[in-house]
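Section handout, structural biology tutorial.
Before the tutorial, make sure you can parse a SMILES string by hand: atoms, branches in parentheses, ring closures as digits. In the record below the ligand is zinc ion, and the chain has 317 residues. In the tutorial you will relate the predicted structure tokens back to the input. Do not try to memorize them.
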Amino acid sequence: MKPFYIPEDFPVNEVEFDKRFYDENACYDYLFQNRWPDGFVCTKCGHTEYWFTSRKLFICTNCQFNHSLTAGTIFHGTRKKLTLWFKALWWFTTRKTGINALTLKALLGLGSYNTAWKWLHKLRSCMIRDGREKLSGQIEVDEIYIGGQHSGKRGRGAEHKLAVVVAAEKNEKKLGRIRLQVVRNCSGDELLPFIKANVESGSTVVTDGWKGYSKLEKTCYKHQQVFQTKAKNKESVLPGVHMVASLIKRLFFGTYHGRMDGCYLQCYLDEYTFRFNRRNTKYVGKRFFRIVQQTVNTLPFNRKNNILNNISLLVTS
Ligand SMILES: [Zn+2]
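Predicted structure of the complex:
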């Protein structure tokens, strides 16, 4: 996504939200200002004048190219009102642990649980911003397992269990931003590309002695290894990633009652990352604003992993 300045205009609380987004035009105006913060610009020829049609299309007066604010976004082809979608976005982004399909169905009066569930997955597809900033400074990296009854050897060993690599930024002693990614196994072929995609070069990567990280020495990172001793278990040598791991396991056990489809794990991890990285945001409305920006400026990601289709995860407490 091309970086550009967008004035941070958002409702700071639910009262302001309800006052502002009470009809379709208000929602439409908000999408417009987030797509074209400096006014309309034709994507084809750069012209700045347009006609607005009754079918809510913006037509460039120079080259006649049609622009739709919703084409390709999560709102594309919806028969439901934007006011309902905005409300779903608001609840989804501003509540501390999000919202589940049953609650969304009840609050919005949606026809079925299935519709609410699909809406939530569409919202999850906007969690990741293309070209987001990488983690930097000191980063702890380790793998954890979601699902399964017992902790086993590294790799996708047991059924009902998937490996997730966790990167956690440390700002002095405080935890900064995180990244989470489902991996097929814990070899260097999976771990190194994850680090390269998510950590700024020159950063210090802190790992345990696992051989999957041994090639880090030859890369643009400073590699610091920490080792377990009798006095220090893994939780105390890599405290950041293990705190994140216990929070995730608690969330999955509580929210999904210990059972979920493995193919959706990455989507839930993306949602968790979005919330975690914005946990200290002063105004809840800013999270809503970020997602609206992402819906109109980047195509939704399909992060469902069909390879993991037949894996039903058992998440134990
Ligand atoms: Zn044009």
